[in-house]
Amino acid sequence: MLESARPQSPFAPAAAALDGIPRAALWTAAAHAAENLRPAPHVRDPWAADFLHAAGFDGGPPGDGPMQRLLPDYQVVRTRFFDDYLLTAARSGCRQVVLLGAGLDARAFRLDWPTGVHVFEVEDPAVLAFKERVLDLGRLSCGRRTVVGADGTASWREGLRAAGFDPGRPTAWLCEAPLYFLRPPEVEAVVAAMTELSAPGSMFGAECVNSATMSSPLVAPFMDALSTIGLAWNWQLAEPERWWAEHGWDAGVADLFTLPYAVERLSPYLPVIGTAAAKSVFLTTGTLRRTR
Fold first, then answer.
1. Residue 7: inside a domain
2. I want to staple 222 with a disulfide (CB 3.0 to 4.6 A). Which of 24, 67, 93, 205 is the partner?
3. 45/112 Cα distance (integer angstroms)
4. Number of H helices, E strands in the chain
5. Is position 269 within any domain?
6. Is residue 113 part of a domain?
7. Average pLDDT over residues 123-130
8. Burial code of 23-53, b = ≥16 C-beta within 10 A, e = fewer?
9. CATH number at residue 228
10. Are 45 and 4 in contact (CB under 8 A)?
11. Is residue 6 part of a domain?
């Protein structure tokens, strides 16, 4: 596949794309496809293999270090964690769900949503068009799904409103991975818009990079490998709870080793990577703290 030279979504740098499809999204799809073949998968995603086939993709991140070997199992853990977060948020009253940088996310089709959930997927128009071709005969499991194109030339915020998003209703937001590929000012802009559009009772989920582990033997070689394809983890945090509080949210970081599915998948890697290095990212969720 040839690298795309066209502008991408504001949630994914152009260097991160192969034929317009984010590399990270393809890596996650590969992890989901393998997981879906297990007898008791933690993530059921029958569309993942179709995405890979349609994209003609069979590969993974560059290099062959511990992080590359860990990544598929970690991606399953991350997906399951945010699956649970979104379903909890929806059942607690957030019937609007916004997936920022949705990539090849198929949650609108594969999760057991409560009645009346409206899922918005914000992503580059080329990615959305690719998904529509693959999901053409898919049956929604949510009440309604709306796609919002964001190609860097127009405001995704205004596009979301125009697509029927209601800022007066509680919303569950998800930035599963794209934030840490962005520069800090870009993250600030995304989070400021998300906060402004959030009604009381809104919730968020986001993966954030732990700046303290960037030079670790696990992460540093992986960063070197990613740099060969023009990728970097540009946004890093030392104190995620404090950062999110300063932006209007009460946040908490998950302890993955209290989650049975995470223990099952990640424990085999601990002799190689160590417990500290296993915390190279923060799976963060929170609720809106400010009042309108």
1. no
2. 67
3. 12
4. 11, 10
5. yes
6. yes
7. 92
8. bbbbbbbbbbbbbbeeeeebbebebbbbbbe
9. 3.40.50.150
10. no
11. no
